[in-house]
Amino acid sequence: MTIKEKQEAIVKEFEQFSDWEDKYSRIIELGRKLPALDVEFKTEKYKLSGCQSQVWITAKLIDSKIVFDADSDAAIVKGLAALLVNVYSNQTPDEILVNPPEFVKQIGIDNHLSPTRKNGLGAMMKQIQMYALAFKALDVKRET
Question: Which pTM was predicted?
Answer without folding.
Answer: 0.92
